[in-house]
Specification:
3 strands; globular; zinc ion binding; 2 helices; alpha+beta; aspartyl aminopeptidase; 14% strand; Peptidase_M18; three-stranded mixed beta sheet
């Protein structure tokens, strides 16, 4: 089920438990910010995201899913909507894993 701004997704008890276990697996694999970035990179690649280099000119496409890392301790991931137009709105979510660490 996909969440929307108007109506958040409702999960069954089994789905909620599976998501909680997945989060615990991520936390257990993320002893340091470096481990968290490595684990997130692996998960993003499995989800169809493309790794791009921060220093390169990006060739982004509508519907694309991308991420880059910096210093092995920072990760930025983003998607581009199918109907995105330059100058249109965008949404961002941020988090950090450095202090305190996820563990």
């Amino acid at each position: 089920m996909e969440a929307t701004a108007a109506a958040p997704a409702a999960f069954s008890k089994d789905e909620a438990q599976a998501k909680a276990v997945d989060m615990l697996d991520f936390i257990n694999a993320s002893w340091t910010p470096y481990h968290a970035v490595a684990e997130a990179s692996t998960r993003l690649m499995k989800a169809g995201f493309q790794h791009i280099a921060e220093k390169d000119a990006w060739k982004l496409k509508p519907g694309g899913k991308y991420f880059f890392t910096r210093n092995m301790s920072t990760i930025v991931a983003f998607t581009i909507g199918q109907q995105y137009q330059p100058g249109g709105p965008f949404y961002m979510i941020g988090a950090h894993t450095d202090s305190p660490c996820l563990k």
